[in-house]
Design goal:
Elements: E1 6-7, E2 11-19, E3 24-30, E4 36-41, H1 45-52, H2 58-76, E5 85-91, E6 94-100, E7 104-106, H3 107-113, H4 118-137, E8 140-141, E9 150-153, E10 158-160, E11 167-168, H5 191-195, H6 203-218, H7 231-237, H8 252-261, H9 272-279, H10 301-304, H11 335-350, H12 356-363, H13 365-372, H14 377-392, H15 396-410, H16 416-433, H17 439-454, H18 461-476, H19 480-489
Antiparallel strand pairs: 1-2, 2-3, 3-4, 4-6, 5-6, 7-9, 8-11, 9-10
Helix pairs in contact: 1-2, 4-6, 4-9, 4-15, 6-8, 11-12, 11-14, 12-14, 14-15, 14-16, 15-16, 16-17, 16-18, 17-18, 17-19, 18-19
Length: 493
């Protein structure tokens, strides 16, 4: 691949960006639209030498298999914080993929440039944890969460990249491993990844994210290079320092959650959603002033100014939304039309037949988030309806992802409507456990949300109806006795 090469008669190669052990990244421009894209190609001296060696080099074969898997994952993923796969092909023997280009700076470089306030860290980490939670909802462990695999775009949005060593939790999925090689990056690898014999779970990503959050808050990683003790030994055996040892007046909840994220035992770590909930009270709110000193890019901007325009009374240095990557145009409705669309989708779902309104609602979710911000509550309600539709169609992984989106977006909203959406999303998540035969967990989740619903005065009728629907499924599984006391307390019993 060289500058000015034309790929597939569509993408004109422009500039070399970077290289690593797995290949190279270039920019290219789509000739028809003028859109800038990123091209990742599996090409390096080691790969080329392996292809020339006698017989099939096992290392090269593994890299090609992993590259193929990354292509498949990106093709499947639809998340506004994961660059979308646009095309794929081969340049001679070298496979490549074409992705949306994110114009920004890697998070490690961003941290070196700035001293960050707690709300800036909350904005960065919330945006990083969102795609991690999405990947987990789809059965994927990233396995290489580190600052260099997160990009802060010029409009302040954060993107998770590089699923090259991702692990699929599906027991039937093929494993691409290499003897003597530990996945992940030095300084952010979870203890179980270092041991390599332990099962890989979603908790491995939370350990890496804990290391990133520690760095953002303190300016240093949890463990430093030592002549007498390796990084791996420190991560395996040494208790991590607390953020509060380096930062005065840190919120105790943040101090505690980072400590849990860095726990040696995977089962002791929180989920991505739990961390997002802890960070929610610290997020910037619409209309808040820009950081001072200014951040460029400004990761608080998507929260402070969902429409992407900085207020004149604030700083002139803050970047404007929309200067980063561009997406294909989507027919996004106005806010009034969006409310009507949600109502139409609800009618389709009530009739048991998700149709055109539901499909359009799901298709416009990402554009609505980008235009109006995640704090715009109708988007959380739209996620609920899309989750309901996926559940009715039996697509449980998608339903779970949509319910989690709704739960996350409503978590910090203290209005009555926000609390109702938050609780309805939790009911949906409990219901998603049943078809997967996680009935014990479903009973526990149903019981927990039922108690929270009963604490509302008055108790919302829609939540009572949804709780009864899920209770009926649990009763059919022989678990009626365990939920009877709470069920009898619901209005209309």
């Amino acid at each position: 691949m060289e500058p000015n090469d034309l790929l597939q008669g569509r993408f004109r190669v422009e500039e070399f960006l970077s290289s690593g052990g797995m290949g190279e990244v270039w920019t290219a421009r789509e000739e028809k639209t003028g859109r800038l894209v990123a091209v990742k190609i599996l090409r390096s001296p080691r790969v080329s030498a392996g292809r020339r060696s006698r017989g099939r080099n096992k290392h090269v074969q593994m890299l090609e298999d992993r590259f193929e898997r990354e292509c498949s994952l990106l093709q499947r993923f639809r998340h506004h914080r994961i660059p979308r796969l646009l095309s794929r092909g081969n340049d001679g023997l070298d496979p490549y993929l074409v992705m949306e280009h994110v114009d920004g700076v890697h998070m490690d470089e961003f941290r070196r440039r700035h001293t960050l306030s707690p709300r800036a860290v909350a904005a960065l980490m919330t945006q990083l944890l969102e795609p991690i939670a999405y990947a987990h909802a789809n059965g994927v462990v990233h396995r290489d969460i580190k600052p260099h695999n997160a990009i802060v775009a010029k409009d302040g949005n954060v993107y998770l990249i590089d699923f090259g060593i991702a692990f699929l939790t599906d027991p039937d999925a093929t494993r691409y491993t290499e003897d003597g090689h530990t996945p992940g990056s030095l300084g952010y690898r979870a203890p179980e990844l270092i041991r390599s014999s332990d099962p890989v779970t979603f908790a491995a990503d939370l350990y890496g994210a804990g290391g990133v959050m520690f760095l953002l808050l303190t300016g240093r990683p949890p463990f430093l290079e030592r002549s007498d003790r390796s990084y791996d030994d420190q991560h395996l055996y040494d208790p991590p320092p607390r953020v509060s040892e380096f930062v005065d007046h840190v919120d105790p909840a943040i101090d505690a959650i980072v400590d849990r994220m860095l726990a040696k035992a995977p089962e002791s770590r929180p989920t991505a959603e739990e961390v997002i909930a802890v960070l929610a009270p610290h997020l910037p709110q619409p209309g808040d002033a820009a950081p001072n000193p200014a951040l460029d890019p400004d990761p608080t901007l998507p929260f402070r100014s969902p429409d992407g325009r900085e207020r004149p009374a604030e700083t002139e240095r803050a970047p404007r939304r929309g200067r980063g990557r561009r997406r294909p145009e989507v027919d996004r409705p106005s806010r009034d039309e969006y409310d009507d669309l949600i109502a139409q989708a609800a009618d389709e779902i009530e009739a048991g037949e998700p149709g055109p309104a539901t499909e359009r609602l799901d298709a416009t979710l990402e554009e609505a988030r980008r235009a109006w911000g995640i704090s715009y509550l109708p988007i959380a309600r739209a996620c609920l309806r899309c989750g309901d539709a996926a559940r009715l169609e039996g697509i449980i992984a998608r339903a779970r992802a949509r319910y989690r989106d709704a739960e996350r977006q409503a978590a910090g909203n203290q209005t009555r409507e926000g609390m109702e959406i938050f609780l309805e999303a939790r009911i949906g998540l409990a219901e998603c456990l049943i078809p997967e035969d996680h009935v014990d967990e479903a009973v526990a989740a149903w019981s927990a949300v039922a108690r929270d619903v009963l604490a509302l005065v008055p108790v919302p009728a829609v939540l009572v109806r949804r709780l009864r629907e899920v209770a009926l499924e649990l009763q059919e599984r022989g678990r009626g006795r365990e939920i009877r006391a709470l069920l009898d307390r619901l209005p209309g019993a």
